[in-house]
Amino acid sequence: MKQIKQAARHLSKTIGMTLGPHGRNVGILLENGKTLITNDGVTIARHIKLQDPSQNMAAQVLVQASLQTNHNAGDGTTSAIILATDLIKRGSHAIKRGKSVVTLKSELTIGANQACKMVEQISIGCENIYDVAFNSCQNEKISNITTDAFKQVGINGIVSLEENNLGKTELIFSDGCEVNACLVSPYMIENPQALETHYQNPNILLTNQAIKSVNDIVHILEISQKPPYNPQETPLPPLVIFSPDFSQEATNTVLVNRVRGGIKVILVKLNEYTDRLDATLGDLSSLTGATIISAENDLKLSDIDLNHLGTCEKVVSNLELSRIVTNRPFPEFRVKQIRAQIDNASDEYTKHRLCQRLAKLTSGIATISIGAPTDAELKELKLRAEDAIAATRAALREGVVPGAGLAYIAVAKTDSKILNKSLYSINKRLRKNNSGARFAPLHEGVIIDPSTVIKQVILNATSAASTLLTTGAFIVNNQA
Fold first, then answer.
1. Could you give the C-alpha distances from 225 to 222, 307, 316, in angstroms and in order?
2. Contact, 369 vs 170, CB < 8 A?
3. How confident is the model at residue 230 (pLDDT cuts 50, 70, 90)?
4. Domain range holding 16?
C-alpha cells in the first residue's frame, strides 16, 4: 500500500499543478528530442513513467482512469487523478483501522453511483457555449472559434481539428459527414500522433460486398495505379475502399503493397448493421459520386473501372470512425428521401435515429485550423482546442453544473463518508493553485463544467482507487 500511495502522490503533484485558470504548465521531453509545454492532464499522464516498477504499475492504473475520463468526456483528466489520489489516502487509513477492503470497495461504488445521480439532478441546460469552452481551455481566441463552430453546425454537426503552417488559427466550414467506419488495421495509420490517416482528393470505392480475398480488389488496385494521365506531372490519387468486411488475406496483401510498392490505399470497414449499411452507402454515394458495387446494381468487384469511383476533398479515418469532407452540398433529393422516412417512421427510436442522421449529413463540418509561430506553441494550442471542443460538446448534450469543484461538493452527500470527504479535494487543489480566489455559484458567474465530465471523473477515479485499494501485491518481471 505504501508504494501505491507514493505513486498516487507523484502523479497528483505533477498533474495537479495544472488545474484551474492559474495552473502551471509542465514540460515534456518527447522521444524525437523536442520539448512539449502543456497543461493538458491526459497528455502529461501518458508520458509519466516512474523508476520504481511497483510504483509505476500503480501509477499506470491511475493513468488509465485519466485516459478513460478523456475518452468518455474529453476533459476532467486532472481532476480524476486528484480525486483518485485522495480516495487512496483516505481508503488506506480506513483499512489500517480495520475496515474490510471488500466493504470499502462496495461503499465507494455505491457512493459513486449516488453522486452521479445527484449531478444529473443539479444539471441545467447550457445557454452560453463560450463560458464552457473558455473554462476548459483558458484561451479567448480558441473559445470564440469553438463557439462559432458549434453555433454553425449544431450539436449533431462535426467539429474537427487540424494543424497549419500559416502561423494563425482560423475556422473553416465545409460540406461533408462522419460515418461509423474505421481503418481495418492499425498498420494503416499514417499519422501516429493523431492516430489517423488523412488523404486529400482520394478515389473512393463503395461496396456492400465483403472483400473475401485479394482477387476481389487486385483489379481495382491495378487500374487505380494506371490513370489516364501522366503520373510524373500529377501525383496518383490515393484510394479509399469502403466495405462491410475484409479478409485477413486481403488486408495483409494491401499492407505489403503499401510498404513495398508505396501504394497509397486504405481499407475502411463499415461498422453498420444490415438495415443501416445500405443507407450509409447511399449517403456516401450521394456525397462522393461513387457507384455502389452491389448485386442490386448488377455489378461485381471484377467489373470495376475508374468511372465507378467517386472522389471528395478529403477523407480522415481512424480506428473508430471516418470523416468525409467534400466541396459539394448534400443532394436535396436525398434530404427529401430521409425527411419522408422520418414522416413515415413507425416508432420514436427510428424517427430519432433518422433525425440525427439528417442533421449530421446537412450540418456540414467545422474545421478549426490551428497555427502558431513555433511548433511548441502549436501543439499546446491544439491540446487546448481539443479540450474546448470536447467540453462544449459534452455540455450541449447533458447540460452544465457549477464549476471550480463546487459540483463535487454539492454531491458530497452519498452513503460513503470517505467519498464525501474526498470530493472536496478538487476544490481544495483549485484554491491552492489560484491563491484563494473566489468562485461564483452557477447562477452568479460563468465558472461552469459539463455534467458529463463531473460524472466521468467520479466514476473513473472511484474505479481506479477501488482497484488499487484491493491490490495486495505487484509482480514485476525483471528482464536482463
1. 5, 14, 21
2. yes
3. low
4. 2-125+399-469
Closest CA to 410 of 376, 439, 387, 446: 439
* 319-339 tens-digit pLDDT: 888 888 887 777 778 888 888
Question: Could you tell me which residues come within 8 angstroms of residue 443 by beta carbon, excluding any fewer than 6 positions away?
Answer: none
Quickly state the pLDDT bin for 441 (edges 50, 70, 90): very low
Using only the alpha carbons of the chain, give its radius of gyration. 25
Ranges assigned E (strand) in 13-139: 26-29, 35-38
Last residue of a domain, one of 309, 328, 347: 328
Contacts of 92 (CB under 8 A, 6+ apart): 1, 4, 5, 469
* Measured distance CA(388)–CA(134) in Å, rounded: 7
Q: Identify which of 150, 122, 147, 127 has the alpha carbon closest to the alpha carbon of residue 137.
A: 147
| Long-range Cβ contacts of 473-479 (<8 Å, 24+ apart) | 474/3, 474/53, 474/54, 474/57, 474/58, 476/53, 476/54, 476/57, 478/53
Between CA 275 and CA 353 the distance in angstroms is 13
The per-residue pLDDT for 440 is: 46
Is 342 within a domain?
no
How distant, in Å, are the alpha carbons of 146, 191, 235, 369 from that of 168? 15, 22, 29, 8
Same domain for 98 and 43, yes or no, is yes
Give the chain's domain count: 2
In order, the DSSP letters of 240-304 are EEEES-B-HHHHHHHHHHHHHS---EEEEEE---HHHHHHHHHHHHHHH-PPEESTTTT--GGG-
Of all residues in the chain, what percent are helix, strand and coil, respectively (each to 5)?
50, 15, 35
Query: Furthest-apart CA pair in the chain: how many Å?
Result: 80
* Stated pTM of the model: 0.65
Residues 52 and 115 in one domain: yes
User: How far is residue 373's CA from residue 75's CA, in Å, rounded to a whole number?
Assistant: 26
Contact assessment for residue 205 and residue 267, using Cβ atoms and an 8 Å cutoff? no
The CATH number for 119's domain is 1.10.560.10
Contacts of 192 (CB under 8 A, 6+ apart): none
